[in-house]
Design brief:
Elements: E1 2-10, H1 20-33, E2 37-38, E3 43-46, E4 59-68, H2 69-86, E5 97-102, H3 108-119, H4 124-134, E6 137-140, H5 146-155, E7 163-170, H6 183-192, E8 197-198, E9 218-224, H7 227-236, E10 243-251, E11 259-261, E12 273-280, E13 285-287, E14 291-298, E15 301-307, H8 313-319, E16 326-334, E17 343-353, E18 357-362, E19 373-374, E20 381-382, E21 389-390, E22 395-400, E23 407-410, E24 442-443
Parallel strand pairs: 3-10, 11-12, 15-17
Antiparallel strand pairs: 1-4, 1-5, 2-4, 3-4, 5-6, 7-9, 7-10, 8-9, 10-24, 12-14, 12-16, 13-14, 14-15, 16-17, 17-23, 18-22, 19-20, 20-21
Helix pairs in contact: 1-2, 3-5, 6-7
Length: 444
């Protein structure tokens, strides 16, 4: 009899290294050798990026496959051994966990749990209770906090909008050293696949974004709209060091899956990622010479919004806002402190309506229509063009042309979170699982 297995795991990495996707890459090969058939690409599910105890990338993995029931027991042991051997165990805040769930369909209760894990806060006891109700098998190492993400990955089958990422891994002797790629090949890849991949190079700084900076085993990761697109991009890149293996993942990267729309400012909660509307109530202020802070309000309250220096163009747009502008803002909610109130750290902003902006000016000359200037204290006005003088010193309000326009503004690619939907993806949303998988979706 055939069993459909969903194997979720999380929290295997640490600042010292390690990588949950790398463990998935190892397991793909091992489980295929056991006779398992993958029914989907490995699912890489990024969770709520605002959780204070999150892992570095806050990504959980789920492998979905079919096998005979006799093989299922062997798979459990292989997964446990692989996670234990390749996790950074014994390090603070590294507590791996994995979950085995058998079934053709994902229960609605489990889907709801996954959504809350991506958009809000869930606790360990919630995960354990759900694992027991579903009669799933689970194993945790250390404190086992990885069980939360592991269960969430199982519960998110990526049937809504999704993207793909091909990840290439370094051989052990190169890990911890500077990554070696042909930058010319990366630029060529970006040009050739620009319609189907995203966030390869930051357009403002020309910084290459496909290579991480940490000690993990990833050489590069390329994100795109289809599996075919990321395979094409992968073949364009020329690595100047050996590639141990590569795998295609299906993921919620670049989908805004973490954002939750709230109807009123009074409804927002710390650590959420929210979408909310409001009217600018204060002129933006400069903080620490680089960051821009402004306040928006509605009938229920007010909240600060922050555009930090790395956000690039979004920070410049925020500086041009004035009271009365109507906005829709999106971002993570930072909790209040003794020094700072509850704040939305901006990821994107839609200017819905610009308020009129006025400046105070002198009268125009009645003869030549040039704006007159003051002749000094108590001496009236004079036209510099024709010499006309006036004792009328009254000033008038003149509407200025705004230096910004209505529309969508997003943080620069170099500062975008994994889940933030880039401009290039608007209108390319998709739904449903793929009908099939490309022939070569991993190596070796």
């Amino acid at each position: 009899m055939i069993a459909n297995l969903h194997i979720g795991f999380d929290d295997t990495d640490s600042p010292r290294g390690g990588c949950t996707t790398y463990i998935a890459a190892l397991l793909v090969e091992k489980l295929e050798n056991l006779g398992a058939t993958f029914t989907d690409y490995p699912n890489l599910v990024r969770l709520n990026p605002n959780v204070p105890w999150k892992t570095r990338g806050n990504g959980a993995l789920c492998l979905r496959l079919s096998c005979d029931r006799a093989t299922a027991h062997s798979i459990f042991e292989v997964v446990a051994d692989t996670i234990e051997a390749n996790s950074v165990l014994g390090v603070k805040d590294t507590d791996p966990g994995f979950v085995f769930f058998q079934g053709d369909a994902i229960p609605e209760e489990l889907r709801a749990f996954a959504k809350e894990t991506i958009q809000g806060i869930v606790r360990m006891n919630q995960a354990r209770k759900l694992i027991n109700r579903l009669k799933a098998e689970a194993l945790g190492f250390g404190a086992g906090y990885g069980l939360v993400g592991a269960l969430a990955a199982v519960g998110e089958p990526l049937e809504g909008d999704h993207t793909y990422e091909v990840i290439a891994y370094r051989t052990p002797e190169y890990r911890g050293t500077s990554r070696q790629l042909s930058m010319e090949s990366v630029e060529r890849m970006n040009q050739e696949t620009v319609q189907q991949t995203f966030n390869n190079i930051d357009p403002e700084t020309q910084r290459v974004l496909i290579t991480p900076r940490g000690p993990d085993p990833i050489l590069y990761g390329i994100r795109g709209e289809t599996a075919e697109a990321v395979v094409q991009a992968h073949r364009c890149v020329y690595a100047l060091e050996p590639i141990e293996r590569w795998v295609i993942f299906r993921t919620n990267h670049g989908t805004d899956a973490h954002l939750r729309r709230v109807d009123a400012i009074s409804d927002i909660q710390q650590y959420q990622s929210v979408i909310l509307r409001g009217t600018v109530t204060s002129k933006p202020k400069l903080v620490r010479r680089r960051h821009r802070i402004f306040t928006i309000g509605d009938a229920t309250g007010a909240v600060d919004c922050a555009a930090y220096e790395p956000t690039g163009r979004l920070r410049k747009i925020a500086w041009q806002l004035i009271p009365g502008d109507i906005l829709e803002v999106s971002g993570g909610v930072r909790p209040s402190t003794s020094l700072q109130p509850l704040t939305v750290n901006l990821e994107k902003m839609v200017i819905l309506k610009l308020a009129p902006k006025y400046k105070s000016c002198n009268l125009k000359c009645p003869k030549c229509r040039k704006r007159m200037s003051s002749m000094g204290w108590g001496q009236g006005l004079k036209c510099a063009r024709c010499g006309f003088k006036s004792v009328n010193k009254k000033r008038i309000l003149v509407q200025e042309k705004r230096r910004i326009s209505e529309g969508l503004f997003i943080v620069s690619p170099r500062s975008q979170r994994h889940l933030t939907k880039p401009v290039s993806r608007y209108g390319r949303e998709k739904c449903g699982k793929p009908r099939g998988m490309v022939g070569d979706w991993h190596s070796p």
